[in-house]
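A reminder from the course coordinator: this example appears on the midterm review sheet, so study it carefully.

Given structure:
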C-alpha cells in the first residue's frame, strides 16, 4: 500500500492540497478558490468556514486523484495558512465575525496605538525582538475592542487561520512558533507569548491564546467525522503546520542558512532561514521565527498578483496575457512607472497609500506597457526592500512564478539566478514534508534533501544588459516613491 503525506495551503485567493510520497513525488492535487470581502475602508476579511469548505473540496480532489492511481493511505497531514489573520471564537466555540486578514489596513490606527502603548517601535524591538506593522494580528484585537465592543466581549479563543484549520481537523487548539511570531504579541527571541502586549489591550486576552507546541510535535489525529468527510483514515497524524511563508521555506529547502526564497502570491515575500534571531532589525524586515526551530526574517509587500489581476481585469484580459504582453514590451515600460499600492502598503510602511501611475504619453500608452509597469512595480517593491540579504540564487514560488517572463524579470532585475521547484505549490509541499517528518521522526533537513527538486527547464539566468535597464527603471521607481510618499 502506497503511504502518502498531505499538505494543505490556505492562501488568500484559494486553498490548495497536495499528496506526496516519502520521495517527494506528487500523487494528487486539489484547488478551491476563496472569495474576499474588500471595503474602501481597507477592510480585508474572509469567513473561516470558507476555508473549511475550500480545504474539504481541495483535499477530496487530491485524495480522489491519488486513489485513482492505486491503493494508498494518508499517514500525515500538515496545514499552511496565510499569516496574521484573526479568528475569534466565543464560549460555545462559534466564530464571532469574519476573520480580518494579513492585508487588512482598516486597523492601521490601532497598530500605531499598540506600538505607542508599548513605548514605540524601538522599545518593541528591544523587548520582544519585533515591532508590529499594520496587518499583524495584534492591531485587529484593539480594533475589535474599539469598534465592535459587543463582539469583543464574547471573545474566548483567538486563533490564526492555520490554527483554526488544525482545530477543525483535530479538535485541539494549539499554536507553533513560526505563525505565532507574526501576531505582534509574541517574543520572537524567547519564542514565548508576549503577555505585556496583550495586557495593554485587555487583560482577559492572554487566557484566550492557544498552547504553544514544538515544530516536531503532532497536534493529534483527525476527528473521525472529519476523516470520513475527507476520505482519510482517522489515524492520520496532523503536524503543527505554520504560516504559508514558513511552509514555503520548508518546501524550497530554506531550512539551512544561505537559501533565499521569493514568493509571488497575493503578497510578495522574500525570506532566508537563520540559525539565530536578528540582533538588529533592518527597516521593513519582519524578524519572524521559522517553523523548523530557527528564524525566518522576511520582507512582505501587500501588493503582488492581486494588483496584476486588477490591471488585467481593467484591460479586459486574463492571466494568460501576462507572458505575451511582457514579451511585447521592454524593461522600463517606455517610461511608465506604477506604484502598485492598491491595498495600501506594509513595506514601505504606508497602510493608507493609493496606487499611482506616472509617465503616460501619447506614444507609450499601451496594454503591454501598463501591465509591464505594474509587474515591474510589484517586483521593484519587494526587491528594493530586500537589500538586507544578498542572493546569487533565488528560489521563486507562488502563482506569479508560473510566468516565464516574470521569472526572467526577477532574474534580470535582481542579478540572481532564478530557480523554480519541480512541485509548483511550495506551501503545500512544505506542509506535506513537515507531516512526513513528524509522522516518521526524520529531521526536516533530511526530508528536504530528498523531497525538494528543481524544474531545471524553468531556470532563468540574469542577462547583464537587462540588469542595467532594470536598474534605471528601479531608480525611477524609487524617485517616484520618494516624491509621492517621502519614503
Ligand atoms: N501563468 C501565470 N502568469 C502570471 N501570473 C499567474 C499565472 N498563473 C497564476 N498567476 C497568478 O497567481 C495568482 C495566485 O497566486 P497564489 O500564489 O496561488 O496566491 P495565494 O497563495 O495568495 O492565494 C493568480 O491570481 C494569478 O494572478
Ligand atoms: O502577511 C504575509 C507575510 O507576513 C503574507 O505573505 C501572508 O502570509 C499572505 O500570503 P499569500 O496569500 O500571499 O501567500
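Designed residues:
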Amino acid at each position: 500500500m502506497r503511504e502518502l503525506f498531505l499538505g494543505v495551503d490556505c492562501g488568500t485567493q484559494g486553498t490548495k492540497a497536495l499528496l506526496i510520497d516519502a520521495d517527494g513525488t506528487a500523487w494528487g492535487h486539489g484547488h478551491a478558490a476563496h472569495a474576499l470581502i474588500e471595503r474602501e475602508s481597507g477592510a480585508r476579511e474572509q469567513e473561516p468556514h470558507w476555508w473549511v469548505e475550500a480545504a474539504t473540496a481541495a483535499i477530496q480532489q487530491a485524495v480522489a486523484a491519488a486513489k485513482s492511481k492505486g491503493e494508498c493511505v494518508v499517514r500525515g497531514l500538515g496545514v499552511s495558512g496565510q499569516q496574521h489573520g484573526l479568528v475569534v471564537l466565543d464560549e460555545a466555540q462559534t466564530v464571532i465575525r469574519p476573520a480580518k486578514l494579513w492585508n487588512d489596513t482598516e486597523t492601521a490606527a490601532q497598530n500605531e496605538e499598540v506600538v505607542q502603548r508599548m513605548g514605540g517601535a524601538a522599545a518593541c524591538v528591544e523587548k520582544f525582538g519585533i515591532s508590529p506593522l499594520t496587518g499583524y494580528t495584534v492591531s485587529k484585537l484593539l480594533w475589535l475592542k474599539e469598534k465592535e465592543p459587543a463582539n469583543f466581549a464574547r471573545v474566548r479563543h483567538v486563533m490564526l487561520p492555520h490554527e483554526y484549520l488544525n482545530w477543525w481537523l483535530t479538535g485541539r487548539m494549539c499554536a507553533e512558533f513560526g505563525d505565532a511570531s507574526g501576531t505582534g504579541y509574541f517574543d520572537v527571541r524567547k519564542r514565548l507569548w508576549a503577555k505585556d502586549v496583550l495586557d495593554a489591550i485587555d487583560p482577559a486576552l492572554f487566557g484566550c491564546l492557544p498552547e504553544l507546541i514544538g515544530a516536531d510535535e503532532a497536534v493529534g489525529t483527525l476527528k473521525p467525522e472529519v476523516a470520513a468527510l475527507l476520505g482519510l483514515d482517522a489515524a492520520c497524524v496532523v503536524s503543527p503546520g505554520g504560516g504559508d511563508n514558513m511552509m514555503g521555506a520548508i518546501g524550497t529547502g530554506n531550512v539551512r542558512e544561505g537559501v533565499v526564497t521569493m514568493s509571488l502570491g497575493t503578497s510578495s515575500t522574500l525570506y532566508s532561514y537563520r540559525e539565530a534571531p536578528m540582533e538588529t532589525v533592518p527597516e521593513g524586515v519582519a524578524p519572524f521565527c521559522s517553523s523548523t526551530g530557527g528564524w525566518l526574517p522576511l520582507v512582505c509587500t501587500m501588493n503582488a498578483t492581486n494588483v496584476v489581476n486588477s490591471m488585467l481585469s481593467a484591460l479586459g484580459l486574463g492571466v494568460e496575457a501576462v507572458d505575451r504582453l511582457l514579451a511585447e514590451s521592454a524593461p522600463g515600460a517606455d517610461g511608465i512607472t506604477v506604484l502598485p499600492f492598491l491595498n495600501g502598503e506594509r513595506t514601505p510602511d504606508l497602510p493608507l497609500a493609493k496606487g499611482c501611475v506616472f509617465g503616460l504619453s501619447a506614444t507609450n500608452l499601451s496594454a503591454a506597457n501598463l501591465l509591464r509597469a505594474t509587474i515591474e512595480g510589484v517586483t521593484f517593491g519587494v526587491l528594493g526592500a530586500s537589500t538586507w540579504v544578498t542572493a546569487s540564487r533565488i528560489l521563486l514560488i507562488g502563482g506569479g512564478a508560473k510566468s516565464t517572463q516574470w521569472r526572467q524579470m526577477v532574474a534580470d532585475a535582481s542579478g540572481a539566478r532564478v530557480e523554480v521547484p519541480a512541485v509548483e505549490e511550495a506551501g503545500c509541499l512544505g506542509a506535506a514534508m513537515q507531516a512526513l517528518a513528524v509522522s516518521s521522526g526524520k529531521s526536516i533537513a533530511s526530508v528536504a534533501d530528498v523531497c525538494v527538486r528543481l524544474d531545471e527547464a524553468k531556470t532563468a539566468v540574469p542577462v547583464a544588459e537587462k540588469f542595467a535597464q532594470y536598474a534605471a527603471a528601479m531608480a525611477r521607481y524609487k524617485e517616484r516613491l520618494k516624491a509621492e510618499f517621502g519614503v
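The pocket of adenosine-5'-diphosphate (ligand 1) is lined by residues 11-14, 265-266, 305, 308-309, 319, 322, 398-400, 402-403, 406 (CB under 6 Å). The chain has a mean pLDDT of 97.
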